[in-house]
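Issue 218. Parser rejects a valid record. Input:
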Amino acid sequence: DGDTAGPPARAGIFASLRLRDFRLLWAGQVSHTGALWAEQIARPVLVYELTGSAAHLGAVVAMRTLPQLGLGVVAGVIADRYDRRRVLIVTKVGALGIGVVFAALLVAGHLELWHIYVASFGRGALMAFDQPARNSLIPSVVPQAWLMNAVALMATTQSSMRVVGAAAAGVTLGAIGTEGTFVLIPIVYVGSVTATILMRTADQPAAAGVGLAALRTDLAEGLRFALSQRAIRVTLLLSLLFFTLGVPYLQVFSPLFALEVLDMGNTGVGVLLAVSGVGALVGALVVASQPSTRIGLMLPLLLVAFGAALVLFAATASLPQLWGRYWLALPLVAMAIVGMLQTAYFAYVQTMLLDAAPDELRARVFSLISLDRATSTAGAAAAGFLAEAAGTQLAQASYGVLLIAGGAATFLLAREFLGYRMGGGARGRGPAG
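Output the parser choked on:
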């Protein structure tokens, strides 16, 4: 059941789930993501109940994000130096512990605002170490031919829980309140800890050397390798555009469209998020069922398509008069397409980084994506200013056009990159370039 030798490249949409250890990795991620989305919905409600302050809402989010930005590359070094499954177990047990203590303080009536800040920082720090270890484990539990399928199936956990987890959190908040919801979150998370412990992966010997000097050496080695590989350089540059200009559609533009343009009210923010999640799930399943080995070609094509979908969403939301009483269906369909292409694009990014690096450097290379993620904050801030100055529709369309231009530039400036195929990196490396 756990054998990964010699499978056919096309073996069905759920091919990787035939493998025991991948099933456990995937099931653990379902539990992890479900608890995460529930927390993301319940946490701002709790903060607002305690403080009534919008400023604290943003500050708590920043406290959660800060360690992920600062520790991401360090976490990659740790995941390459030590057994990744054990690193995962430590992070998940730590997150479970924080959840249990947090719920206990809340139920006992002793929770204070500073507890929320500390818990948010702790969870953010643990997640910084969770991500590179978890993702770099994928090639260890599936064969190369199924790597794209496995990455896409892992993406289904995020997209499906964006809909199911968020909806379930909304129901539990209404039925049993914030206390009951925060009690349920660690109970759900037990599944992630259990699945990770049950995995059987080959022991990964610890790297030689200890201390800060060894960590700096390992980090420098990962950076040198990444910069020496054209495929990784271009992928990180394209992802820089994706996070700066693409991700703000979720953080900034969707709420603005729901509240100001589409006049859907507070409920509309959740509706747009859910519709995007449905599209993301479809995108992940499409990639899982029909993975392309031509990663170098697919990445800029999907970035162009994603940018065009954002322009389409902005345009359809601006023309209600042409569609009568059914006009709202058009921007919702466009939002689903945006979610679909977003997930498909990032599945190819993850596959490229995992495929292009050898196993001993894989987590360090993958963790570099955390540096690109940091730019989403700047992109979101600029999006807010631009929407204020030029209008929400024009601002969103402008971001989409810039994404189209960035993807198109790849065809002119990085033609060699377009020829990269699965297996062209660590498992069959061509010229570094």
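Fixed in the parser; the record now loads. The first helix runs from residue 20 to 51.
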